[in-house]
Specification:
Blueprint lengths: L1 H9 L2 E3 L8 H25 L4 E3 L7 H13 L6 E3 L2 H46 L4 E4 L3 H12 L7 E5 L2 H9 L3 E4 L5 H6 L7 E4 L4 H14 L4 E6 L5 H7 L3 E4 H14 L1 H11 L4 E8 L15 E7 L2 E4 L13 E8 L12
Parallel strand pairs: 4-5, 4-7, 5-6, 7-8, 8-9
Antiparallel strand pairs: 1-6, 2-3, 10-13, 11-12, 11-13
Length: 353
């Protein structure tokens, strides 16, 4: 409910990663202090040379008159009731007070100009981002599953600027921006939100929502917008997996049953459970990697490759390493191998299921 309320207030929008900038309230306070400083300097300049000024009301200039003259002079062109008549007063007005007036106006108008400039810059960045984005990856949901999926993708070489995150929570998207990812705030079951993420041009879509029914709706919407993208979805209950496949998902991961199987395996063989956990944790220890067969490996048996091959993908058939048909390897085959990988830096975002 909180997420839905958040979206109704903010609406679906794109948030690009921001550069480190000063807080707006601090910027305004700093400009006000600068303007006040310019005003105080002008008041003292007029007061110290008050003998060179003439007041039409009482012909004398006191501190209040100096403050009044400085205020109307900096904010306007003056009313002519207090005027400099001595040469020194006029020289001070030319060399000091006039530049201070210009500086005062620049400080006051600077906040508005900066807002307009920042807005124009953001519009330009957004337009350039839309124009250059192709074959990217859309991640729906930036919870534990979504972050783990991103960490695995980044460990395989996918750049952060090729990842777009969709989530209904503005705080979650701000956390994603802090990690350097583009985020879209909104409900991913709506086509307009996915279109903002340029899902129609995406190569792959990862659906890691908290609810299974939401995952089904997102899968249906994403498949309707992009017929050729590879869609991988996660569900909590195994009975919902067939529905995800019927909705258009190419692969479905059942998080609850997968965790349960890993728990059971760890009970029977703690070492085997540790190895399995190591394999599914990309970038640490051993990794499962799918790659094409090299020219040097073509024509050889599975056991003659440089890596430990566990399966061979030939067309749409997945062959085990011990399948007689798997050897010899063909140049068009792809192999799933176990390799040792360098560790990857985890994402720093708030916890969320």
């Amino acid at each position: 409910m909180a997420r839905q309320a958040d979206e109704k207030i903010a609406g679906p929008r794109i948030k690009l990663p921001r550069r480190e900038v000063e807080r707006p309230l601090r910027q305004v306070a700093k400009r006000l202090m600068m303007a006040l400083g310019v005003l105080v300097v002008t008041i003292f300049l007029v007061y110290f040379d008050r003998g060179g000024y003439h007041d039409n009301a009482d012909e004398t200039v006191d501190f209040l008159d100096a403050a009044y003259y400085a205020t109307v002079t900096l904010s306007t062109t003056g009313y002519g009731d207090i005027v400099p008549y001595s040469d020194s007063a006029r020289l001070v007005n030319i060399l000091l007070i006039t530049p201070l007036r210009v500086l005062f106006l620049i400080i006051l108008v600077g906040t508005t100009l900066e807002v307009l400039t920042e807005r124009t810059r953001e519009e330009f960045r957004l337009h350039r981002w839309r124009a250059t984005l192709r074959d990217h990856t859309v991640i729906v949901g930036f919870g534990t599953k979504g972050r783990s999926a991103i960490q695995t993708l980044c460990a395989t070489g996918l750049r952060k600027d090729h990842i777009v995150i969709v989530d209904p929570s503005s705080k979650v998207i701000e956390a994603a921006n802090a990690d350097g990812f583009v985020g879209v705030i909104g409900d991913a079951t709506r086509s307009d939100v996915l279109l903002r993420a340029e899902v129609q041009k995406a190569r792959q879509i990862v659906i890691a929502t908290q609810r299974d029914d939401t995952a089904v709706l997102v899968t249906l919407t994403a498949r309707q917008l992009n017929r050729g993208a590879k869609i991988v979805a996660a569900v909590r209950e195994e009975e919902n997996a067939p529905l995800l496949r019927q909705s258009g998902a190419d692969a479905v991961i059942t998080s609850a049953s997968a965790a349960g199987r890993l728990l059971g395996l760890s009970v029977l063989s703690p070492s085997a459970g540790t190895v399995m956990e190591d394999l599914i944790q990309q970038g640490s220890g051993l990794d499962l990697v799918e790659r094409p067969v090299t020219k040097a490996e073509a024509g050889k048996s599975v056991r003659e490759t440089k890596d430990l091959v566990v399966s061979v993908l030939r067309g749409h058939r997945l062959l085990g390493y011990d399948d007689p048909v798997a050897s010899p390897l063909q140049l068009t085959d792809r192999v799933i191998t176990i390799v040792r990988a360098a560790p990857v830096t985890p994402l720093t975002t708030p916890d969320k299921d």
